[in-house]
Design brief:
Pathway: Cofactor biosynthesis; riboflavin biosynthesis; 5-amino-6-(D-ribitylamino)uracil from GTP: step 3/4; Cofactor biosynthesis; riboflavin biosynthesis; 5-amino-6-(D-ribitylamino)uracil from GTP: step 2/4
Function: Converts 2,5-diamino-6-(ribosylamino)-4(3h)-pyrimidinone 5'-phosphate into 5-amino-6-(ribosylamino)-2,4(1h,3h)-pyrimidinedione 5'-phosphate.
Largest sheet: 9 strands, mixed
Distance between the termini: 32 Å
Strand order of the largest sheet: 11-10-9-8-14-6-15-18-17
GO molecular function, one term: 5-amino-6-(5-phosphoribosylamino)uracil reductase activity
Number of helices: 12
Shape: globular
Order of helices and strands: HEEHEHEHEHHEEHEHEHEHEEEHEHEEEE
EC number: 3.5.4.26, 1.1.1.193
Number of strands: 18
Radius of gyration: 22 Å
Cofactor: Zn(2+)
CATH architecture of the largest domain: 3-Layer(aba) Sandwich
Structural class: alpha/beta
Strand content: 15-25%
CATH superfamily of the largest domain: Dihydrofolate Reductase, subunit A
């Protein structure tokens, strides 16, 4: 099952809105077929593994990192394909939360006489499929917030210089984060100040994430890197209902997709924005700033994972803070997260935090 999960992770960031599933088929103690969900979500992992196994799948055990699908879509159900191939046993960690499947895949298998075992490495599978499950159950993608900070929590000098606070190893780790997310999100201020490309670089031939900008009034430069490449690599803009029509027309003409979002206290409502991204099919979004957007996501309890890269440099009180105004008057109201990992990345530290579940 660990191998099936590892195979499934190859699809993270490339298969949305489908889950990134892995499948390993074993017969007589030997792997006879392997597969994972292919870019765009088709073919499914089971289809790929059965194709590789061929006749050797008969009487074999299939380890699948999520309940096999039970609904007819672009392809027949994977549960029926496993039955037709003569698989004797299916091992899966979790039931699918998609109501079109949700136990029905297991039911098809059991009705056909296939032995079904569940619960194997269920925690690890739940982490891998968190984005897919969140989109199904809450209508929004899994949100990872990334911050690159100085020792004193700054993201730039007082003049706005920020390249580079962290070292090359940390920056490469961020490229890896981009590669395993469906989209990279930044605020309008970051888009204007840094003119980021938000692409995956130095990772070979990999799919590119959707570039998302949160900009209430679409006040973004039309000669930016994203504007120039919008026709080749997707750009989506989350904007308010009061965005000027000429701005909408200009960016639509460049190939950008516009997502209207509700406002909250005069700013884009972060919950509405994530819901719009979920409706558009995204399951995993990486937010790379800026400070005000990061603060809004944290105060809205929308950050599922926080990855902080801290460099051995101090920028002082005049530097720009990593987080915008949180509006706190009591410590009890501050967002609290749970530390799950800390590691050295070159000369920097990476600490990973997840939502602190309230008692």
């Amino acid at each position: 099952m660990a191998h099936a999960l590892a195979l499934g992770r190859r699809g993270l960031g490339r298969v949305w809105p489908n889950p990134a599933v892995g499948c390993v088929i074993v017969r007589d103690g030997r792997i006879v077929g392997r597969g994972w969900t292919q870019p765009g979500g088709r073919p499914h992992a089971e289809t790929e593994a059965l194709r590789h196994a061929g006749a050797a799948a008969r009487g074999a055990t299939a380890y699948v990192s999520l309940e096999p699908c039970a609904h007819h879509g672009a392809t027949p159900p994977c549960a029926e394909a496993l039955v037709a191939a003569g698989v004797a046993r299916v091992v899966a960690p979790l039931q699918d939360s998609d109501p079109r499947v949700s136990g029905q895949g297991f039911a098809i298998l059991r009705k056909a006489g296939v032995e079904v075992t569940t619960g194997v490495l269920a925690e690890a599978a739940a982490r891998d499929h968190a984005g897919f499950f969140l989109r199904i159950t809450r209508g929004r993608p899994f949100l990872t917030l990334k911050l690159a900070l100085s020792l004193d929590g700054r993201i730039a000098t007082a003049t706005g210089e920020s390249q580079w606070i962290t070292g090359p190893e940390a920056r490469r780790a961020v490229q890896g984060l981009r590669a395993c997310h469906d989209a990279v999100l930044v605020g309008a201020g970051t888009a204007r100040a840094d003119d980021p490309a938000l692409t995956v670089r130095d990772f070979g031939d990999v799919g590119q994430p959707v570039r998302v900008v949160a900009s209430r009034l679409i006040d973004l430069p039309l000669m930016s890197q994203m504007a120039r490449t919008a026709a080749e690599i997707p750009v989506w803009i989350c904007h308010g209902p009061d965005a000027p029509p000429e701005k909408r027309a200009a960016w639509s003409g460049l190939g950008a997709r516009l997502l209207p979002c509700a406002l909250q206290a005069g700013r884009l409502d972060p919950g509405a924005m994530l819901h719009a991204l979920g409706q558009a099919g995204l399951t995993r979004v990486l937010c790379e700033g800026g400070g005000q957007l990061a603060a809004a996501l944290l105060t809205g309890d929308l950050v599922d994972e926080l990855q902080v890269f801290t460099a051995g440099i101090a920028l002082g009180a005049e530097g720009q803070p990593g987080l915008g105004v949180l509006g706190l008057s009591r410590l009890a109201d501050a967002p609290r997260l749970r530390l799950v990992d800390i590691s050295a990345v070159g000369g920097d530290l990476r600490h990973v935090w997840t939502r602190h579940e309230k008692a």
